[in-house]
Amino acid sequence: MKIDNAELYPFDPKFFVQPHGATQAYLDEGAGEPVVMVHGNPTWSFYFRSVVTALSGTHRCIVPDHIGCGNSDKPSLDRYDFALKSRIDDLDRLLEHAGVSEKVTLVCQDWGGMIGLSWAARHPERIKRLILTNTGGFPLPKSKGFPWSLRLGRNTSLGAWLILKRNLFCKLAAKWCVTRRPLLPEVRAMYLAPHDTPEHRLSVLKFVQTIPLSERDAGWDIVTNTAASLERYRDVPTLLFWGLKDFVFDRHFLEEFQRRLPNAETHTWPDCGHYLLEDAPEEAILKMTEFLAKHP
Questions:
Q1: Domain map of the chain by residue range?
Q2: Using an 8 Å Cβ cutoff, are 168 and 162 in contact?
Q3: Residue 1: count of CB within 10 angstroms of its CB
Q4: In the CATH scheme, what is the code of domain 14-294?
Q5: pTM
Q6: Phi, psi dihedrals of residue 214, rounded to the nearest 5°
Q7: Which of 224, 270, 279, 284 is 20 to 30 A from 18, comparing alpha carbons?
Q8: Residues near 173 by Cβ (< 8 Å), separated by ≥ 6?
Q9: How far is the C-alpha of 116 from the C-alpha of 107, rounded, in Å?
Q10: Predicted confidence (pLDDT) per residue in 136-178, tens digit
């Protein structure tokens, strides 16, 4: 089922059948130097709609919907494992399919940071610029506790039931992740639309359940390798723009990126939350376009 709202999402998604059999949707808008945008959980390419509109006149904007998200297929566990490595493999193959071989500007939000930066760790020579917003690319900072809401969903059967049967994760994200202003009803509906049944919420649950927190967890090697790879980007133009009212990817994550990427340009919004591009889209996009102009 294609999510169709020409006013809020005026794009025509393309589709790529991955080798595992699931079809992945993605936006490929505009022409020019490629900007690859990688979303997190529980969002989809809709989150970057304003950026695509702003940049597609001068850049080629490529924005995947992860498997289980947006307009992509929503397979069962016997068809897809939803693991971090699989997410990175999907991105790798999709960009190859789209013919993206030149250097890219990589834009990441939420768990998209781990996926996108792990892809970058495989192809460090392909990174021209980094734009990171309320995201991560390393183990949980020592100064940061694991949020109770994620712990509930990751480690308990009650949390899994609430995510799958009551869609609680998506509903609370639509409420808690904006702090400057509530989402308009029609925008909220677009965030909830991909996860309209318990079967279609499996990706939301697996994103939470597969967070690697220690060496006992699958994907921990990817997280540590990605963290080590950040050293390579010290001289790569990097923009960090952050909503400081984010209760997950908060100032602890921002400070860790600043420590690892000391030459990065940083902009913060004290009254904005995890969905910065919903709270302050015009201001954030202005900083992005200024950054791109400064580093042609």
A1: 14-294
A2: yes
A3: 9
A4: 3.40.50.1820
A5: 0.97
A6: -155, 175
A7: 224
A8: 42, 43, 191, 274
A9: 8
A10: 999 999 999 998 889 999 999 999 999 999 999 999 999 999 9
